[in-house]
Amino acid sequence: MKIIKILLVGFGLILLGMLAFPIIAFVYHALWYLFWIAVLGLTGYVGYKVLTRKKDSLLLEDKSSFALPGLDSADRAFREFRRKHLTK
Questions:
Q1: C-alpha angle with apex 62: 56 to 66, nearest 5 degrees?
Q2: What is the pTM of this model?
Q3: Residue range of the domain that includes 65
C-alpha cells in the first residue's frame, strides 16, 4: 500500500509540474502583451502631444516685455565695445 501511495504522489507531482508550465507561460505572455500595449500607448500619447502642441512653442525668445530691457543693455554694450575697440 505504501508503494502505491508513493507512486501516486510522484505521479501527482509530475502532473502538477506539467500543469505549472502552461500557467507560467500564460502569465508570461500576458505580461509581455501588456508591455507592448503600454509601449504603443505611450508612443501614441507622445505623438498626440507633439502633434497638438502650439506652434509658438518653437520660438527661441519669448514675446513678453521683460526680455526687451535686457536687449537694450546688450545693444548699448555692443555699441560701446565697437566704438572703443573696433575703430582703432
A1: 155
A2: 0.48
A3: 2-86
Residues contacting 56, CB < 8 A, separation 6+: 63
Amino acid in position 53 = R
pLDDT at site 51: 87
C-alpha cell at 61: 525668445
C-alpha of 82 from chain center: 48
Residue 32 has pLDDT above 70, yes or no: yes
Do residues 67 and 61 touch, judged by C-beta distance below 8 A?
A: yes
d(C-alpha 13, C-alpha 20), whole Å: 10
DSSP 83: I
Cβ density class 61-87: b for 16+ within 10 Å, e for less: eeeeeeeeeeeeeeeeeeeeeeeeeee
What is the number of structural domains in the chain?
1
